[in-house]
């Protein structure tokens, strides 16, 4: 390992996706860690990301308002405790809240994937001398 630049090896392995040395056929011993924070790439704030934030806020508000109206009308007490049939507008509110909740969950999943992808790009593989390697 002393005869090669570690940065060159890291670059070559990330491009070639090789997990074994082509010369001795030994697996690389790897240690994954984050780069120093000064070397992190800046997050790219795109129009798509801004649109996602705005969409999540709209989905959240579209979920909260119908739920607030249902609580104000004592929907759960009327329908589930007293056994009265729902009012005509209640079913629309329930559907609107359910659709908003599904949209919000989907948008949160995209946020999660975006954030974890950003952190994954900040990781770097370090190659270390394999303690189990055969000495030739």
From TrEMBL:
**Ranges for domain RING-CH-type:** 1-31
Q: Kindly give the InterPro entries that the UniProt entry links to this protein.
A: Znf_RING-CH (IPR011016), Znf_RING/FYVE/PHD (IPR013083)
Task: List the keywords (alphabetical).
Answer: Membrane, Metal-binding, Transferase, Transmembrane, Transmembrane helix, Ubl conjugation pathway, Zinc, Zinc-finger
Q: Which GO terms describe its cellular component?
A: membrane
Tell me one Pfam family matched here.
RINGv
Segments spanning the bilayer are 45-71, 91-112
Q: What does the record say about its membrane topology?
A: Multi-pass membrane protein
Coarsely, its chief localization is: membrane
**Compartments (UniProt record):** Membrane
SUPFAM superfamilies referenced in this protein's UniProt entry, alphabetically: RING/U-box (SSF57850)
GO terms in the biological process aspect are: protein ubiquitination
Molecular function as annotated in GO:
ubiquitin-protein transferase activity; zinc ion binding
Q: What is this protein called?
A: RING-CH-type domain-containing protein
The organism's taxonomy opens as: Eukaryota, Metazoa, Ecdysozoa, Nematoda, Chromadorea
